[in-house]
Structure prediction request, 1153 residues.
Amino acid sequence: MTATLQRRQQTASPPRRRLPISNFAAKTTMALTGLIFVGFVFVHMYGNLHIYRGQEEFDHYAHWLRELLMPLVPYEGVLWILRAVLVTSLVLHVGGGLLLWTRARRARGPFRRSGLTRGEAWMARSMLGTGIVILLFVVFHVLDLTLGAQPAATDTFEAGSAYANLVASFQRPLVSGFYILTMLVLTVHVAHGTWTAANDLGATGRRLRQVAAWVAGLVAIAVCVGNVTIPLVVLLGVIQ
Amino acid sequence: MTPSTTGSAQALLEELRTVGSDLPGLDTQVPASQIWADRRLHYRLVSPLNRRKFTVIVVGTGLAGAGAAAALGELGYNVESFTFHDAPRRAHSVAAQGGINAARARTVDNDSVARFVKDTVKGGDFRGREADAWRLAEESVRVIDHMNAIGAPFAREYGGQLATRSFGGVQVSRTYYTRGQTGQQLQVAAAQALLRQVSTGQVNLHTRTEMLDLIVADGRAQGIVVRDLVTGKISAVTGDAVVLATGGYGNVYYRSTLAKNSNVTAAFRAHRRGALFANPCFIQFHPTALPVSSEWQSKTTLMSESLRNDGRIWVPVQPGDDRAPNDIPEDERDYYLERRYPAFGNLTPRDVASRAARTEIDAGRGVGPLKNSVYLDFRDAIERLGKKVIAERYGNLFEMYSDATGEDPYKEPMRIAPGAHFAMGGLWSDYDMMTSVPGLFVGGEAGWGYHGANRLGANSLLSACVDGWFTLPYSVPNYLAPLLGKRKLSVDDDAVRAAVAEAEAGVQALINIGGTQGPERFHRRLGDLLYAKCGVTRSAEGLVEGLEGIRALREEFWTDLRVQGRPDGFNQELERAGRVADYLDMAELMCLDALDRDESCGAHFRDEHQTEGGEAQRDDAHWLFASAWERTASDDAAAPGPRYVRHQEHLEFPSVPPETRDYR
Amino acid sequence: MKLTLKVWRQESGAEDGHFEEYPLEGVGPEFSLLEALDKLNDDLVARGEDPVAFDSDCREGICGACGVTVDGRPHGPQEKTPSCRQHLRSFEDGATVQLEPFRSGAFPVVKDLAVDRSALDRVIEAGGFVSTSVGTAPDADAIPVTHESAEWALDLAACIGCGACVAACPNGSAQLFAGSKTMHLATLPSSQKERSRRAKGITRAAEEEFGPCSVYGECAEVCPAGIPITAIAGLNREKLRQVLRNKDD
Prediction:
């Protein structure tokens, strides 16, 4: 017989400690903020679809967002509230994710689980990776279409001309490619994230779980399909 | 009736055993049905504030052990609880399938406490203690209430009430159940209750710790010697009383329905220290166990008795018939249970069904590659009810069967054979569950008393629960009360040091043999020998051969055992070696008891004592007593070895007059 | 048939471990995985080598003592089946089968394939019980329990405590184990009075001992007792209920 692999197995479980932030708190926070993002990307996708109604309608939609609930709130008030909520959620979501990821690695110990073949497990394992891709995309996306910062944005960027900015941006195949890739990644992240949120928030009823599973899948696919058409039609020259 | 034990058998018997004194029976004028209430009334008490001054050692965490430990903890005693498992929940109570009996008698099927007693006593073929059966029946009601309250999800009717089913040997429906995993649910609930006491600090739980010896000082059990199975360290724990709830010894047969690690060591070492061993030859063989089909098969897995409701048991008429079962035509099959017991048919009690199977197999009509099993055929039931109904009723069992054998029971008959199952015998105890060593109590299958010579289905979970939750918590304080003010034995006491040194020497002795064969090999051979010579049926001649074989094997063991590995760490070979050493002695005691008990009763069937119809023939005139064995040593230097003294507890049956069992 | 067993050998928790390969002959498809190990150990002892340590007891799949990782999968290739009921017919003749202990930071190796799973009991100790002392229980028929609740409670209570869920989880989480116990007791009327206390205690202990759940679902795939994945949501539900309710029950 032959000795093959030498590897240290830790001898004792990690010292038990009262966790400063409980996993439950972190998971619930991630679930709630995640659901905010799911709502956001869904509404965002719905807004994006205005592009098929032409430049005027699309720009009008962008403008309308800024005037929402005026004069109750000042110009761009709602938008800034939303931005504040989204940024806070982002910090909490990413923070919670990293915290749980490190705890999971420590709890598992030195021997990683291998041989995961099921789709669900693969999706769960991809959450950190897909999350990073989405985060990078968000940074790029804001620089490109919100702030118009070079080199992310095109040199024709003009604040207020949402339609033109978008079309110009997507006419760069690399940007469209990155966008499409992100949407595919987002599908996975949203689908598993929504399902996980349902579990984290305690969905135990049989019917509720079925609904949650369907909603998770359908929302993820709807967001993906709705969004992915846009760079495609731009690249195909349908929208110019 | 004439004694059948003559010639060499009689000589061997004379050499090995002497007849000792009669044990005091239950000396009471109270009617049988009121003994328990009367005893409780006269038990001494320990006041709540004094309870923490006592420490009780409980060995085993099955239903009896976990129950006793938790209950004593709840009362306020300090409890030291021990299990060789890594978790209390794994004790073998977990594997019981069918259910737990209780004389709640809620329906109008005419059940009652008295009927429960009658069934139990009769089922045990009048070799148990009737008063114990009364206690069992009375406390059974509270057992269900309690186990339900602490988390066992009993099956319920659609109206929300507890559901029951019926079991072999009775004509009422008094078995409470949780699907086919009643033992598991009760065991897990009991282990949880134990862990609750652990969390309050009332119980100190020692897992992966095996008892090696009993410490007897000043004539009282005052502690135990244990080995930490992970570090190998041998140490002593002292207390004011010791409870052994360490299960039965069926694994002496090597292949049995028991878990691989179930063993007799704790009970047997207490026996060595003076605790009498009652009716060691009373072993129940379960008729629907999986047959041995290969040398390396590790056990005879139990298939639920319920299969006999729809399956028909048969063998080919022609001995040695090698045809596939489905090729054997109807008129060449012998449905021997239906033929011999038309009234009960395939649902005769376990001992009867096992014996009938053994008769067929021994006559050469056994089936399967090793010709050691009988068919359990569902063909007719599938034809009558359809495959779907059968799958609903027995689907999981069929799956388990094809899992284990690779055969499809929907297409060809199952093969079953009797497998060693339950030990009715155990450490002798008085009505208060105290053994002949003061301060040493026993509970559950490790004890004796309730089940006589044959246990009814679903009575074992009950007896363990009653002992643990509703008997020992009353009777142990009765023993402790007068000890108030006495100091707990110091671990530095000479008796303690001596016992620890002895246990250490015992371990070293096993290692020092330095032979060539591991303990498993001896265990396998012992099992084969016992199945052949002290199995479902016994004869004087066979038992003599058995005793000679055991003694030869024991000698070989002590000269050629190899214990691989170190004594000072986790060493399962060493654990096995110690247990096999005790099995070898236990086997001798069993054969001796079987040879000595010159009658047939319940599961103990002596070929010499049968009716013309081949049924067990009891001899109440000579054997209406429980044998309680004392172990001594030979005083003849030329013939060394253990010697035995048989004491008798005469049995009385004021409520259920002895009668002959008849299932035809 | 013939197999090569590649077995994790580790003298004790304090020492390093490694794989060793052992050819195994004279076994057949009817052998259970653990019987193959029995045979290997017999061979090893006959050769004067230390046998492989592994936990096992009832060999019927109910006690939960056994558990080895087979080719990276807890318990073995056949799904929802404990190690003792895995059979060699799942493997090709001549195959190399890798056997390791259950892997998790919470399960330190005792020796070879045996691990220390006491962390599971510490979770139960933190609240997985009913605080009803013996003798004080009301009549079990006094509070009717619907057939459905009893069956559902039993589905959840079927857990055998083997720890495969933890070993299967890439996060080393015991959510399925803790959830099954919490939900089992939350479903029955007799154990309602400390429902929130229990959720709090079990969640805290499970978080201290084990990793967080991210719904891989691997636990339910290997669970020999068939505990439904719903149990992981059950623990969260009970904990959330406790936080919102802020009472004992």
The first helix of chain B runs from residue 7 to 16.
